[in-house]
Specification:
Blueprint (H helix, E strand, L loop, with lengths): L1 E7 L12 E7 L2 E4 L10 E8 L11 E8 L8 E8 L1 H5 L18 E13 L8 E7 L2 E4 L9 E12 L1 H5 L2 E8 L8 E8 H5 L5 E8 L13 E10 L20 E2 L4 E13 L4 E2 L12 E2 L3 E7 L2 E4 L10 E12 L5 E8 L5 E9 H4 L17 E10 L12 E14 L7 E3 L2 H8 L4 E14 L8 E7 L23 E2 L5 E2 L5 E12 L2 H18 L4 E2 L2 E2 L3 H6 L4 H25 L6 H21 L10 H15 L10 E7 L2 E8 L21 E8 L2 E14 L6 H4 L3 E15 L2 E3 L9 E2 L18 E3 L4 E3 L14 E12 L5 E9 L18 E3 L4 E2 L11 E3 L21 E12 L6 H8 L12 E12 L20 E5 L4 E11 L14 E7 L2 E4 L10 E13 L3 H6 L4 E7 L8 E7 L2 E8 L20 E2 L2 E2 L9 E14 L8 E7 L2 E4 L16 E9 L8 E7 L8 E7 L28 H22 L10 H9 ...
Parallel strand pairs: 13-15, 66-78
Antiparallel strand pairs: 1-4, 2-3, 2-5, 5-6, 7-10, 7-14, 8-9, 8-11, 11-12, 13-14, 16-21, 16-25, 17-18, 19-20, 19-22, 21-26, 22-23, 24-25, 27-31, 27-37, 28-34, 29-30, 31-50, 32-33, 34-35, 36-37, 38-39, 38-40, 38-49, 38-50, 41-49, 42-49, 43-44, 43-48, 45-48, 46-48, 47-48, 51-54, 52-53, 52-55, ...
Helix pairs in contact: 6-8, 6-10, 8-9, 9-10, 17-18
Length: 1890
């Protein structure tokens, strides 16, 4: 159950003339509304609205829509405001209430709203050598940035678009940001796109997205990954709301930490709308008439579908009950879906102007992300049907019932989802074969609905007859003529009073039965699965349930169990849970799946139940204590799948009909009643069970109905009669009517009335013409049925009765009293028998005799007296004291009787409960009797007979369920206490009473006055309550006991403010109260005292009249300002509480607009309650000739509580009295703050020692106060500057600078109060203040001292005003180029400063740094206007915005706002830190003490100590050592300055003021940073002004030497097929493309190793404070002024391949930001493209990390290797390495160390030698060996080496083969010759010695 407590609202512009206001809330499409209260400023409801959640838990995206509306007025004209409350926090913690206060309601009519988009920079944009440009589409307006160069462009451009729309319409406006390459063709120009709506920004914190990175996606391939990043800031600016501060985050680029990604996946949702059926008939004026010429017919219809901000509508079909559209809609869908609901509506009429019915498809029910499953089971995309979806809407005959409760038809739908974006189509026509396919899967079956009505109580009172109607769709609807008639309505009944509070219908033992037969699709497989899962959920979640003779336990009992009981309960729970899963699994496995959603749900449910069954089979591993969270998790997952959106059958609707009007209803889902053959587990939870329903109407309970419902197929209804406790009987019924004519009864003389009729009196059929229906026969003859109606005996359930009789007497002529004409009466004056004739009933006995009631407003004898208004009539009121004019008196006699114990039996109870009223009475002229005849089926049918009555012609037979005898029960209600009751209305307490209703009886507790936690401690006994049916059924399904608690006290009405309306609009307010008292029949009103009589009139009683007290109203009337119309001598008239105060006139208004006397005192009586205090009326009257005093201005001061204070006590200092009432005294605050601030300053002084420094300029303090990236050139911030992000008067510590006096606008007299939403034009201002404090009631006690004393002089002062305008930002564009040319104009009185030619061209963030000095007389010239105008070539110039400063408030404020206090006091005459105030600190402290009424400070002789107030302060408390800065002041002045700072005065500051434009009121137009110094001439000359001239950028020179390249990608192929390139390097600074330089070409580079030794020289201007390069240039040749662009200093180097006859090829790019320079590598092998921000270690064994970024402006010189990258596909890869040296020099250093470009003169610093490059050519004649070396050897050396080795091996083998034959032959001829030669022997025959 979701409960919403609507407490109160605040309506500033309430008029009170309307019909009232109420709050309308909507949750899940179900509306709820509070009661209507009168329209006032603060209406209060304190009502609780509730929505049952059922089995659908809250979704994280759930929200609640609230609307504050005028009663009875159509939307949107009647809407006062609306808002949407997210319930995500309630989903996270359901037990924690979601407290909402000050929820802003948005104006439904729209208001001025601005959307601002700031494009800052890009990062890693995909593409090579690109020139990106950004286009921004806001709504229907397109904007475009300048073209930049590179993959990381910097823009810093702002675009604004204003709207005047409602927040709902504004939220749907798109914001499309697209990055294009200006160099590419149109088809390939898109780099990336990011799209969102304004609502995303509107719902963000602060309504802004600041410094967010957008992940760009390709528009046609959103899943291809990111194509770069774009940093933007977006904000929605509403009128009257300050924008959120957008501060740049500190640190390097961290894209992932602040990234906005689009939804990860895109899909297309297709919704097919086939046809509708059961559309209702409409009145003839709204549709075409029927064929038969009736007054009702079908209307033309169309279907409207809304999803994710898109709305599509089908074509309008001609009038038909079953129109067919056969259309398909296409909706883009982002996954996961952000929008939860698909809203569908059936529109009526040819123009589709009226919503006939609505329905909702929840994506969470027709899709799954897999979160409710486990083990990684995937979910499924949204799908539905083909299936019918019921639609519900209002009925024209049920105006007081909920709007969307009646069934109005159903539509055949099919929904599917496909991946991929839509192809541009929004709608199409469904193919005929698809229509035929769907129709084959929708067979119909007959279903029967039966309802047995047991009791109906808490019904509306008579005299109209009541009946109940049971319907299913259009079947059973008595107002529908398209379906056959059915016995769906109970007989008419007259409600009877139960004797206590409620009414009921007398049905006794014959319970009416309603039966409806219908035809629907058989979806039993879905209903069975749904009911099985819901049964499993009930076992886990709900309270114990009876099952046979034992009781089941559940998770709730497990939660409360302790000790060993946890294990027992856990085992039983797991066992029952496993059994339920095993019973459900076979049914789910056998379930058919005709639709895709059936298949997905079946798979998910099977997986979940198997998992739960497996887990329930074993005990939990972590012990039984861990079972509770596990079981709760199972419950959540099962409940998520226990939904069935394809039920198809509409809900069962129960209507309460009062006459012909439908006054209340209740809906029961059809699956909860569905009968199934699969067993009790598959049946609905309410099928065949007794249940209690509460029928609602007009937001209240209109009936409590106890009945039994059954729904199922007619073929399964054969056993239905046996399951009912009573006996079903079917009767034919008719009423015979007669009239009495001439003393005889007969049918004549009925005067148009029928002779036979039904129970309601309509014409019926005579009984002899009634025939049994076909298939039925009579079972007996016609009999007269006695009309038994329940006449409640008020004494049935009472054991003791107090009887009363009034004795009446009247005054005789002689003044004596005698018996009256009617001697004995009751309290109302009706005649009753004398007390002596009052008999005691049987079964009772009298406990005491008659006695006189002497209590109350009677005299001693019990008489009360009165005077009759007319002769013979009783008095209208009675009094206790006798007067001579009294004509009647009476007294009350009482006696008590009690019931005899055991005297009442069963028959007496029934007789007392039911009494036959059949006896004729005297004077009756008409009578009727009821004829009944029973009927039964002719043959025993196989189904329940009551379902065979469909289509029977009128009269419809009557079905009754007869019970033979009742059972008697006793109910005991132990009402102990109620806790934390919510008070009604604005009351703080209540007088609660509890009313208990049970079946047909009710009782009430006693009333406990004045409590919200009533402790009744009372037992209510209901004796012998009659209930019908089996007592065991009553035990299992007992009736509901309804308890209602009411606030029954009568408290005096409270005075309230009622707005008065006149012909011209609102005309004031009335403080009044009204009370309506009921006067009884005897003329006596309620026991209320007569109002007091004063001065001839009745005055307001004390209980209503507010309590008055004596107070003093002190008025500080300072002066009048800005009066118009020739006012001469005005005076002021102050009216309050009936007293008037007049001031002396101002004699010379142009010379001195202040009053001659300023302080006044007025003593008066005012109410003690603040809400009753009357306002202070101010009237300004002019004094003219002849005594003429016209009213020239008036004002009304409300909310006087802010001026209430306590009077000054004894000994308290009271000075000027300018302290705002209600706050502490000035010195009290100072005395409390001084010790703490002294300690803080002493601690800070000890922590940071002073250091001498060289003062620079004012901008040093400014940038030091700004914080990040501020180049203040200061080593400490002791000489600080306070920068306020708002106006100085808006700073909370300065109380609006209205502490001395406030400004009250004066309006034209007779104009009435201002109209809501419009700013009235003031005619002047009143400067003054009020103080209200109580006075002692005793005249002898002296009054407290006055507040307004020691006032400053009221004479005008001449002042020198110095206006310092520093800069402006967030200015809106005014020119076509998206920029503006602002300049400053300062106006004070008639003086205007500022020239048109002093504008800052082409900027939205101008830096002015200008000082304006103007002399004026305050208060004659008090309003200082600072305006920013846009310079145009031809005047007039457009005003950008204006801010107004009240100089008088600053001059009079005790915070000393006319000149801020510096941190230090210096004695030098000139310089940035010189003292510029007129008074030194010591004199300023004396002036401050005198203004506050304090004693003057006393300094010591050395000036190191001062006594201020009651404290003594030493200089050592603030300064631990002598100051080290130059020109310090004397100790006396330094100490005085420290004490002044301790008093929380305005320091040296810079305020940020918002600019507004009169053409767009309330909408911010930018901000300006400035401050104002005011120097009165009476205090002497001021100090020198501060020089805030803007700093000029400093000129630098960047020298970049390109030494070598490595591993550069080749770009060409030579004649031998080798990769080579002719590379060169180009470079420029970002924004200075015209200074592009390039190296010479290194030709025929084969390895990518190039040598250049080339110097680039770039000159630029750099602003160190902002770390940006200043680039002044003209955008176009026709531009008049230069545009100053500020971009980060970035060096861009590109490597190109030189081509002769074609465009050069791009090889790589390197972008180096000089302030965030990546750390270079010292070797080319270590040069890799590392991720940004990754720190690197120089050596593995060293733990110190080298910073990954460095600033060239600090290091000045660096050399190393940097990687070049190139875009390839979706990624960037390494394409080469550059060896560079970067050197940064100032202009002076560059002049001292000149260097030429390239290798030109002067070639110094350093000297660049010519690069060493191979000089060769591919000509054979010039260098053939080089060609072979570079052409063959370098690329084929391995192959050549292997070939040479093989060739040598082959040569050796050839030599061997060649020499081997000769050698072998020689061996064969002389084998030993070799041996001999070895021994040195000669062969034989040779010469030698023997």
């Amino acid at each position: 159950m979701l409960r919403l407590l609507v407490a109160s609202a605040h309506i500033p512009g309430a008029t009170g003339s309307g019909p009232g206001v109420h709050v309308s809330a909507r949750f899940r499409g179900v509306p709820r509304s509070t009661r209507v209260v009168p329209e006032e400023r603060n209406p209060t409801w304190n009502e609780t609205l509730a929505w049952p959640l059922g089995l659908r838990p809250l979704h994280p995206t759930a929200s609640l829509t609230l609307r504050l509306r005028h009663w009875g007025q159509p939307a949107p004209r009647g809407d006062l405001g609306a808002t949407t409350v997210s319930l995500d926090r309630l989903v996270a913690d359901p037990g924690l209430p979601l407290a909402l206060s000050h929820v802003p309601l948005l104006d439904p009519r729209g208001q001025p709203t601005g959307v601002r988009v700031r494009v800052i920079e890009g990062h890693q944009l995909q593409g090579n050598d690109i020139k990106p440009v950004v286009t921004v589409l806001i709504g229907q307006h397109r904007f475009r940035t300048r073209i930049r160069v590179g993959n990381n462009p910097y823009y810093n451009e702002v675009f604004c678009q204003n709207f005047h729309r409602t927040p709902a319409r504004l939220a749907a406006e798109p914001i499309r940001i697209q990055v294009l390459d200006s160099r590419a063709t149109r088809a390939k120009a898109v780099i990336g796109v990011f799209q969102l709506d304004v609502g995303t920004v509107y719902r963000a914190p602060g309504r802004s997205l600041s410094w967010k990175w957008l992940s760009l996606q390709h528009p046609h391939c959103p899943d291809a990954g990111s194509r770069g990043y774009l940093r933007v800031s977006m904000a929605v600016l509403r009128a009257g709301e300050p924008p959120a501060e957008q501060e740049e985050p500190a640190g390097d680029v961290d894209v992932e930490a602040n990234l906005l990604r689009p939804p990860p996946c895109a899909a297309t949702l297709q919704l097919r709308v086939y046809r509708a059926e059961d559309l209702p008939q409409e009145p003839a004026q709204q549709c075409l008439p029927t064929v038969g010429g009736g007054k009702r017919g079908f209307a033309a219809a169309a279907v409207r579908v809304s999803f994710a901000g898109r709305t599509l509508c089908t074509r309008v079909m001609p009038p038909d009950a079953n129109p067919a559209w056969n259309e398909v809609f296409f909706f883009p869908l982002r996954l996961p879906p952000i929008c939860e609901e698909i809203q569908l509506a059936i529109l009526s009429g040819f123009r589709s102007s009226r919503v006939l019915a609505t329905a909702t498809l929840h994506l969470s029910q027709i899709s799954s992300a897999g979160a409710e499953l486990e083990e990684g089971t995937p979910g499924f995309l949204p799908c539905f049907g083909p299936s019918f979806l019921p639609f519900y809407g209002p009925r024209p005959d049920s105006a007081r019932t909920p709007s969307n409760v009646a069934y109005r038809g159903r539509v055949l739908l099919e929904l599917s989802t496909h991946m991929g974006s839509p192809d541009g189509r929004q709608r199409d026509t469904i193919a005929p074969e698809d229509v035929a396919r769907v129709q084959r899967h929708l067979p119909r079956h007959r279903f029967g609905l039966c309802g047995v009505f047991y009791s109906a109580t808490m019904v509306p009172a008579g005299p109209e007859l009541l009946r109940f109607e049971l319907s299913l769709g259009n079947y059973g609807d008595a107002g529908d003529v398209t379906c056959k008639p059915a016995a769906s309505v109970t007989p008419h009944g007259c409600p009877l009073f139960d004797g206590n509070r409620y009414h009921y219908l007398p049905w006794y033992g014959d319970k009416p039965v309603a039966a409806v037969t219908s035809s629907w699709e058989d979806a039993s497989h879905r209903w069975d699965a749904l009911n099985l899962l819901r049964a499993l959920c009930r076992r886990l979640s709900k309270a114990p349930v009876w099952d046979g003779s034992w009781q089941e336990k559940n998770v709730a009992e497990l939660r409360d169990a302790r000790g060993d009981a946890v294990g027992d309960i856990g085992r039983r729970l797991l066992r029952q849970l496993a059994q339920d899963c095993r019973r459900a699994l076979p049914r789910l496995e056998a379930q058919p799946t005709p639709t895709p959603l059936d298949a997905h749900l079946r798979a998910s449910r099977l997986h979940l139940l198997r998992h739960v069954a497996t887990a329930a089979a074993v005990p939990p591993r972590g012990g039984w204590d861990t079972l509770l969270p596990v079981a709760q998790g199972w419950l959540g997952r099962v409940a998520a799948l226990a939904v069935e959106p394809q039920a198809g059958v509409p809900d069962v609707v129960l209507w309460l009909l009062r006459g012909e009007r439908r006054v209340a209803c209740a809906r029961v889902p059809a699956p909860d009643l569905m009968f199934s053959r699969g067993g009790p587990g598959a049946c609905g939870r309410l099928c065949g069970r007794l249940q209690t329903l509460f029928l609602l109407g007009s937001g209240d309970i209109r009936a409590q109905l106890r009945l039994r419902l059954w729904l199922g197929r007619v073929a399964d209804s054969g056993d239905l009669p046996r399951h009912l406790e009573g006996t079903l009987r079917v009767y034919a019924e008719t009423y015979e009517n007669q009239t009495k004519l001439l003393g005889k009864w007969g049918p004549r003389g009925l005067l148009g009335c029928p002779g036979f009729s039904d129970s309601s009196g309509k014409a019926g059929v005579p009984r002899h013409r009634i025939r049994p229906p076909k298939g039925w026969r009579w079972d007996g003859a016609w009999t007269v049925e006695p009309q038994r109606r329940l006449l409640l005996d008020a004494e049935t359930n009472v054991g003791e009765v107090l009887e009363e009789v009034y004795e009446n007497e009247s005054r005789r002529l002689g003044g004596e009293w005698g018996p009256a004409a009617v001697a004995t009466t009751d309290a109302s004056g009706a005649a009753v028998p004398p007390k002596e004739e009052v008999a005691c009933p049987q079964g009772w006995h009298v406990t005491d005799g008659w006695r006189v009631d002497a209590t109350g407003a009677v005299d001693e004898a019990g008489w009360e007296y009165g005077a009759s208004a007319a002769p013979g009539s009783p008095p209208l009121s009675w009094h206790a004291a006798e007067k001579t004019y009294h004509t009647h008196r009476r007294r009350r006699w009482l006696r008590t009787r009690r019931r005899d114990p055991g005297a009442q039996g069963r028959e007496q109870d029934v007789a007392a409960f039911l009494r036959l009223d059949g006896a004729p009475r005297v004077g009756d002229v008409c009578r009727r009797r009821c004829w009944h005849r029973s009927m039964v089926p002719a043959q025993p049918p196989p189904v329940a007979p009551l379902f065979l009555l469909e289509g029977i012609p009128q009269p419809m037979p009557l079905i009754l369920c007869t019970f033979q005898r009742p059972n008697f029960f006793q109910l005991r209600c132990y009402i102990f206490q109620a806790l934390e009751l919510a008070p009604r209305g604005t009351k703080a307490t209540a007088d609660p009473v509890a009313h208990v209703s049970f079946v047909h009886v009710s009782q009430s507790t006693r009333v406990l006055p004045g409590t919200l936690d009533p402790l009744w401690d009372q037992t209510l006994l209901f004796h012998r309550v009659l209930l019908y049916g089996d007592p065991r059924g009553v035990r299992d399904e007992p009736p509901v006991v309804a308890v209602e608690i009411f606030d029954q006290d009568r408290r005096p009405p409270k005075l309230r403010r009622y707005p008065l309306g006149g012909p011209g609009g609102p005309a004031g307010e009335l403080l009044a109260a009204f009370e309506l008292l009921h006067v009884a029949e005897d003329g006596a009103p309620a026991q209320v005292s007569t109002p007091p009589w004063r001065e001839g009139v009745f005055s307001v009683p004390l209980g209503i009249r507010p309590l008055l007290r004596l107070v003093a109203l002190e008025v500080l009337a300072w002066g009048l300002r800005g009066l118009r119309g020739g006012v001469r001598a005005p005076s002021l008239e102050v009216q309050c509480g009936g007293r008037t105060l007049r001031t002396p006139p101002i004699t010379d208004l142009p010379a001195n607009p202040n009053f001659p006397i300023n302080a006044f005192l007025l003593t008066l009586h005012l109410p003690a309650e603040e809400e009753y205090v009357p306002p202070i009326r101010l009237r300004v009257l002019d004094t003219r000739g002849f005594g003429y005093r016209p009213v020239v201005g008036q004002a009304c001061v409300r909310d006087l509580g802010q001026y209430c204070c306590q009077p000054h006590g004894e000994g308290q200092p009271h000075g000027s009295g300018t302290t705002p009432p209600g706050s502490a005294a000035p010195w009290g605050r100072i005395a409390q703050m001084l010790p703490r601030i002294t300690a803080e300053k002493e601690t800070a002084d000890k922590a940071a020692e002073e250091e001498d420094e060289d003062e620079v300029d004012w901008w040093s303090k400014y940038y030091a106060a700004m914080g990040d990236k501020a180049q203040s050139q200061r080593r400490n911030d002791r000489d600080g500057l306070k920068i306020y992000s708002c106006e100085l008067e808006a700073a909370p510590e300065f109380e609006g600078l209205q502490d001395f006096c406030q400004t009250f606008p004066l309006h034209q007299p007779g104009g009435g109060p201002p109209v809501a939403g419009e700013d009235p034009l003031p005619v002047g201002e009143f400067k003054g203040l009020f103080c209200i404090y109580p006075l002692p009631e005793d005249p002898g006690v002296p009054p407290p001292p006055r507040r307004f004393q020691q006032l400053p002089p009221s004479q005008p002062q001449k002042c020198l005003v110095r206006v310092y305008v520093v800069r402006a930002f967030d200015l809106p564009p005014r020119d076509r180029n998206g920029l503006c040319d602002p300049y400053v104009r300062v106006s004070l009185g008639t003086k205007t400063l500022g020239q048109r030619d002093q504008y800052v061209p082409n900027t939205l963030e101008p830096v002015f740094g200008r000082l304006f000095e103007v002399t004026g007389t305050i208060p004659l010239e008090k309003d200082l206007r600072v305006s920013l105008l846009d310079y145009d070539l031809l005047p007039p110039d457009q005003e950008i915005g204006t801010t107004t400063i009240d100089l008088e408030n600053r001059l009079l404020s005790r915070f000393r706002a006319h000149c801020g206090l510096p941190t230090r006091y210096r004695t030098w005459v000139t310089g940035p830190g010189c003292w510029r105030d007129q008074l030194p600190p010591s004199r300023a402290l004396e002036h401050f003490a005198r203004d506050q009424g304090l004693p003057a400070p006393e300094f010591s002789a050395e000036g190191t100590a001062v006594t201020f107030g009651d404290n003594t302060f030493l200089l050592s408390h603030f300064e631990s050592s002598p100051p080290t800065y130059r020109h310090p002041g004397p100790p006396r002045e330094r100490l005085a300055l420290h004490v002044l700072h301790a008093c929380h005065l305005v320091p040296e500051h810079l305020e940020t003021r918002t600019l507004y434009n009169s053409t767009q009121p309330g909408l911010e137009q930018g901000k300006v940073q400035m401050w104002v110094d005011i120097f009165p001439a009476s205090l002497g000359p001021p100090g020198p002004p501060v020089n805030i001239t803007p700093r000029q950028p400093q000129r630098y020179e960047l020298r970049c030497v390109v030494w070598n390249t490595r591993d550069v990608d080749p770009g060409d192929t030579n004649l031998l097929g080798q990769q080579m390139s002719d590379i060169y390097v180009t470079g420029w600074l970002d924004g200075l493309e015209e200074q592009r330089q390039r190296t010479d070409v290194h030709y025929r580079l084969l390895q990518g190793d190039g040598a250049f030794n080339w110097r680039f020289v770039f000159s630029f201007e750099y602003l160190a404070a902002e770390q940006l390069c200043v680039l002044p240039r003209k955008e176009h040749f026709w531009s008049l002024d230069e545009t100053v662009l500020k971009v980060p200093p970035k060096l861009i180097l590109q490597v190109w391949d030189n081509d002769k006859f074609s465009a050069d090829d791009f090889l790589g790019v390197l972008e180096l930001e000089l302030t965030k320079l990546p750390q270079p590598a010292q070797r080319p092998q270590a040069c890799t493209p590392t991720p940004q921000g990754t720190p690197r270690k120089p050596w593995p064994w060293r733990g110190a990390q080298v910073p990954s970024r460095l600033s060239l402006f600090r290091q000045r010189w660096v050399r190393g290797w940097w990687p070049c990258t190139v875009q390839e596909g979706d990624k960037r890869r390494l394409s080469g390495k550059l060896e560079l040296s970067l050197e940064l020099l100032t202009a002076k250093e560059a002049e001292e160390r000149p260097a030429g470009k390239g290798r030109g003169d002067p070639n110094t610093y350093p000297t660049l030698p010519a690069p060493v490059r191979p000089e060769w050519s591919f000509l054979w004649l010039q260098a053939p060996l080089r060609v072979l070396r570079h052409g063959l050897w370098r690329h084929h050396r391995c192959r050549l080496s292997l070939g040479l080795a093989l060739l040598l091996l082959l040569a050796l083998l050839f030599t061997f083969v060649y020499a081997a034959p000769g050698y072998l032959a020689m061996k064969l001829v002389n084998p030993l010759e070799g041996l001999r030669r070895a021994r040195g022997e000669h062969p034989a025959g040779s010469g030698g010695q023997p």
